Amino acid sequence: MNAHSPSKPEIGPDLKKLHIKTYGCQMNVYDSERMLDLLRPLGYEVSDRPEGADLVLLNTCHIREKAAEKVYSEIGRLKELREEKIAAGEGRMTIAVAGCVAQAEGQEIMNRAPAVDLVVGPQAYHQLPELIARTTRAKGERLAADFAPDAKFDALPNEREVSGPTAFLTVQEGCDKFCTFCVVPYTRGAEWSRPVAAILDEARRLADKGVRELTLLGQNVNAYNGADASGADSTLAKLMYALAEIPGIDRLRYTTSHPNDMGDDLIEAHRDLPAVMPYLHLPVQSGSDKILRAMNRKHGRQSYIDLIANIREARPDLALSGDFIVGFPGETDKDFEDTMDLIRQVRYAASFSFKYSPRPGTPAAAMPGQVSDEVMDARLQALQSLILEQQHDFKSALVGKTLDVLFEKPGRRDGQAIGRSPYLQSVFVENAAHLLGQIVPVRIEAVGPNSLQGALI
Ligand code: 5AD
Ligand code: SF4
Q1: Domain extent at residue 443
Q2: CA 57, CA 177: separation in Å to the nearest integer?
Q3: Does the pLDDT value for residue 438 go beyond 70?
Q4: Which of 99, 229, 255, 303 is least surrounded by CB atoms within 10 angstroms?
Q5: Does residue 7 belong to any structural domain of this protein?
Q6: The domain that contains 45 carries what CATH number?
Q7: Which ligand is nearest to the CA of 363?
């Protein structure tokens, strides 16, 4: 343990077990970590399993129907575990639902799942200690939803527990883009950026605990415009220049970005600031102008292709990743072929692809021309095999090269360590267990399905 981490509460009769299950994006991972930071001082200790937990927190995702439905089946399972726990004379289990399903369907959860004790939205989880105290005293008020991110960040503890040399850091929340398929503008609210000073402060604390790489998070992270020391609007690029000054912070990443917010200074930072890793997640969703218009993406196919060319001029070795939706309402074979063609032109090092999922309250859910599941399945498969090929090509081109690897954790084999390349691939290296937390040159020797293999030089 590091001198800066809070002392662990003594194991004793008062220690309560907490299980957090996190669904969805990295923002939820960050939020779950912060919920833990809030609850640890109250005597909660993390448990890997829900069995026997005094408090179970589901940090939920509303982005696609599948993700949202999982929550209800999980609540059913927890209800049974709670009954078993009570029957064994081990007391009650508090069931709390947090995250975006909580925000979007709070009341519905209450009605549909009476076993739930507490529902708390993503901007209100700083109130958890009080809410939990209230619900455990008497079942009653169970809902907290809020749209004031500044109140939340101000109320969160300064202390953060870290696990290894990489950390997420939320710098921006919310989205004003209103893509017609997406619930985020409704669940996470309007775009809002944390002030520069608060972010630098959090980053310094993380660096003090050995963090070397920060991934800056935001639903629209490149729209970041938090206030600087003089009260003026900053930019993501300026923020990264300031973060790179912090001793110990050697690597910066950011996600997720919108093409229209790729400012010139951000592109230049990819060229000029060594701490900015050569990796960019820049979703395009579709390669068809007609579909992009229906999605209200506010950019076209060619402008995206031109933008990528621009960014690659600044950073030729950039690894690009994207998000794609197949089967958006009205998508024809020709539209899908346009997406495949865009992928062939752009070339991706990784990607995330999804079948369109109609979400309640979003404009696209009511659009004509909904695409059948069979067609979506076929398109998804074709798209994913094309991307897999490109991913393999990208990795294969690294064999024989020397890359700086940040070692994050021990591997399964004795002496083995697993780290990350600048391009975000996992790299397995033998005889490197003593290098955890360090950035070390590694010669890439082979390509695995989801990783690279390398050797120390
Ligand atoms: N259906 C399918 N995929 C979606 N995404 C967002 N909303 C939907 C939806 N309704 C995908 C987009 C986005 C990623 C986070 O999730 O590709 O970039
Ligand atoms: Fe959703 Fe579009 Fe905003 Fe991304 S930019 S969070 S897809 S509305």
Answers
A1: 402-456
A2: 30
A3: yes
A4: 229
A5: no
A6: 3.40.50.12160
A7: 1
Centre of ligand 2 to C-alpha 182, Å, is 6
pTM exceeds 0.85? yes
- Cβ–Cβ under 8 Å, residues 204 and 159: no
Q: pLDDT band for position 148 (50/70/90)?
A: confident
Q: Specify whether the backbone of 92 is left (phi greater than 0), alpha (psi in -120 to 50) or beta.
A: beta
Q: Which has more confidence, 349 or 130?
A: 349
Verify whether ligand 1 is closer than 6 Å to residue 285 (CB atom): yes
pLDDT at 140 over 80: no
User: Closest ligand 1 atom to the C-alpha of 324?
Assistant: 17
Cα separation values, 23 from 26, 30, 100, 431, Å:
9, 11, 10, 34
Number of domains in the chain: 3
Stretch 394-415: mean pLDDT: 97
Residue 3 lies in a domain: no
CA distances from 122 to 127, 151, 189 (A): 11, 12, 10
The per-residue pLDDT of the chain, averaged, comes to: 93
Hey, is 154 helix, strand or coil? Answer: helix
On whether residue 352 sits in a domain, the answer given is yes
**What pLDDT score does 145 carry?**
72
CA–CA distance from 312 to each of 144, 295, 306, 309, 386 (Å)? 45, 26, 10, 5, 21
Q: Is there a single domain that holds both residue 129 and residue 160?
A: no
In sequence order, what are the beta bridge partners of 21? 58
The residue whose CA has the least distance to atom 14 of ligand 1 is: 323
Output the six-digit token pair for 10: 């003594």
**pLDDT greater than 70 at residue 139:** no
